Amino acid sequence: MIAMPWSAKWFVRGMSLWAVACRLAWVSTVPLRVVLEHLCGANLQSRVGLWFPAREVGWVASELGISDALARSASLGPTPESLRHRQEVCLRLRWCPTCLEQWYHSPHFQHLCLTHCPVHGCALLDFCPTCRRAVDPLGDRPWACSSCGGVLCRPPEDWLLDFQVPRDEVRGPEAPKSRAADEATMFVPSSVLVSAPD
Fold first, then answer.
1. CA angle, residues 33, 35, 38, in degrees to nearest 5
2. pLDDT at 136
3. Distance (Å, rounded) from C-alpha 73 to C-alpha 136?
4. Can you tell me the distance from the alpha carbon of 51 to that of 78, in angstroms, rounded to the nearest whole number?
5. Which end of the chain has fewer CB atoms at under 10 Å, N or C?
6. What CA–CA distances, in Å, run from 128 to 100, 115, 159, 163?
7. pLDDT in tens, the chain (198 residues)
8. pTM of the complete model beyond 0.85
9. φ, ψ for residue 30 (rounded to 5)?
């Protein structure tokens, strides 16, 4: 069994659950779809849970170690009742390339009425720059196209340092310290355990 580490300091207000899952999947080498199914109930049969989580906000907040208000900002809210409102939300991934370079994705990019990033002014992308196909947010690899595996953005080389558990007995006094503060909260979500390959 392997556990997926997570630090609450990695959550940014308004970050989508997809971006959170990408961070978890990248650092733990667990398939992205496995993290998303655990976190918000999204699966290959239904992607709605990703943008409109069926799970309670309190449960997601507890798993991520963040406040309910922050957890609420990671989704588009309750599933729209009318078909017209549901049709305004894109279930395939849409993103701002500049935001993604900073490992950020907003759930609001999924609204079809939004064509450009409100911060950077970039046109939102909804296809892989390599293979020109739509990107399924429930792919296996984080930050990558679900069809061709093309990289959508690259995490910084020292990103893993922020996920190292700051324990003196593990690190030792002579080993380099991580960029994370020693008092940073590091935890393994209570039920995020998957079987490691043999």
1. 105
2. 94
3. 22
4. 9
5. C
6. 13, 16, 24, 28
7. 345 677 788 888 999 999 999 988 888 878 999 999 988 889 888 888 898 887 788 888 888 888 999 998 998 887 776 777 778 889 899 999 999 998 899 999 999 999 999 999 999 999 999 999 999 999 999 999 999 999 999 876 666 655 554 433 333 334 333 333 333 333 344 444 344 344
8. no
9. -90, 140
Amino acid at 40: C
Q: Which residues pair with 58 in a beta bridge?
A: none
Angle between the N-to-C axes of helices 32-40 and 17-28, in degrees from 0 to 180, rounded to the nearest 10: 130
Q: Are 125 and 94 in contact (CB under 8 A)?
A: yes
H-state helical runs in the chain: 17-28, 32-40, 48-51, 57-64, 68-72, 83-86, 97-101, 168-171
CA angle (99, 103, 105) in 5-degree steps: 55
What DSSP string runs through 114-136? --B-TTT-PBPB-S-TTT-PPPP
* Rounded CA separation 100/106 (Å): 10
Q: How far apart are CA 122 and CA 179, in angstroms?
A: 31
Please list the residues that pair with 46 across neighbouring strands. 43
**Whole-angstrom Cα distance, residue 69 to residue 14?**
10
